[in-house]
From TrEMBL:
Protein name as catalogued: NADP-dependent oxidoreductase domain-containing protein
Coiled coil ranges: none
Lineage, uppermost ranks: Eukaryota, Fungi, Dikarya, Ascomycota, Pezizomycotina
Homology family: Belongs to the aldo/keto reductase family. Aldo/keto reductase 2 subfamily.
Annotated GO MF terms: oxidoreductase activity
Domain NADP-dependent oxidoreductase residue range list: 2-315
Entry keywords, A to Z: Oxidoreductase
Keyword rRNA-binding recorded: no
Length: 329
């Protein structure tokens, strides 16, 4: 299964999502990732208020595929950069991509994503400029992220009608405890020949063994900090009793079979989910330390899980499914 290195945690301090604040450490993490045979690095204009791209631009990334995204921060002020805001208008798309390329110090990227829908701009206007930028050689493949299934279908229809570049990959939330993409989005992507890259494979840390329902409330600056925009979003998505009820089912079974929760989570995605290696699907893994990254990379080598573990994950999902968050923005 393709594994994509997510660089959201890399960047200058001051943004609650960044954890890796030195270029040298980030380079070591990418080298470790590459040593396991992988070559795709994913970032976004909004990550670290632009500093994630700037860090990557200072690194040796000649042998990797570099992907980035443009979030329509102007329509979501809580997620906006401290210095820039973008719509998905033609002018802002061009400005955003040029600023990404400048920060990354590259003439083009492998995949450029529309990071989230901008419903204040007609899709046809957005896609017209996206196609121009593609024809000018600034990116190789178009990606989309956080769109509803009907929006994906609409985008593909517009691109087909005009002969424009179509999305070839879509990013979305997917893990053993969050399967909202299965009923509609994945079917839509299969119909249109679009690969799926899942993020949050460890349910934002819930499936790491590090959290329990009786822990003290989230610390300032932490993953579930309700004060920060990212922490508040993650908290609303995952920090609920039903998730801990599901963990109560999984933990004794995983222990019985000598598996960590990370091995269960990544083993499920690799061997028991609806991801398909032959369709070029992938898993986005982000880490805040070299040790975490190595743990995740090793866990990706987990083979098919014992049926008892799969059953425990499925039982947990049945508890959660009525309370799951939406998969789109």
């Amino acid at each position: 299964m393709k594994l994509i290195f997510g660089a959201m945690n890399i960047g200058e301090p001051g943004d609650g999502r960044t954890r890796v604040h030195r270029v040298e450490k980030a380079q070591q993490m990418v080298e470790l990732y590459k040593s396991y045979g992988h070559k795709d690095v994913d970032t976004a204009r909004i990550y670290g208020n632009g500093s994630s791209e700037e860090f990557l631009g200072k690194m040796n990334l000649e042998s990797v595929n570099l992907d980035t995204k443009l979030f329509p921060s102007a329509v979501n002020p809580a997620m906006a950069s401290a210095t820039t805001a973008y719509h998905h208008t033609p002018s802002d798309l061009r400005r955003g991509l040029m600023e990404s390329l400048e920060a990354l110090r590259v003439p083009k990227v492998h995949v450029w994503y529309l990071h989230s829908p901008d419903r204040t701009v007609p899709f046809i206007d957005t896609l017209w400029e996206v196609n121009k930028l593609h024809e000018e050689g600034y990116f190789e493949k178009l990606g989309i992220s956080n769109y509803q299934s009907w929006e994906v279908a609409t985008i593909c229809d517009i691109c087909d009608q005009h002969g424009w570049v179509k999305p070839s990959v879509c990013q979305g939330i997917y893990n053993a405890f969050h399967r909202a993409v299965e009923p509609e989005l994945l079917r839509c992507l299969r119909h249109h020949g679009i690969a799926f890259y899942c993020f949050n494979p460890l349910a934002a840390g819930i499936l790491t063994g590090r959290y329990s329902r009786h822990q003290p409330d989230a610390v300032a600056g932490g993953r579930f900090d309700p004060v920060s925009s990212s922490g508040s979003l993650t908290r609303r998505r995952y920090y609920h009793d039903v998730y801990f009820d599901a963990l109560d089912i999984l933990r004794p079974v995983a222990k019985k079979h000598g598996l960590t929760e990370i091995e269960c989570a990544l083993g499920w995605l690799s061997h028991h989910s609806q991801l398909k290696d032959e369709l070029e699907d992938g898993i986005v893994i982000g880490s805040s330390s070299i040790e975490q990254l190595e743990e995740n990379l090793r866990a990706m080598k987990t083979g098919p899980l014992p049926q008892e573990v799969v059953d425990a994950l499925n039982k947990g999902w049945e508890i959660i499914r009525g309370n799951q968050s939406i998969y789109w923005h």
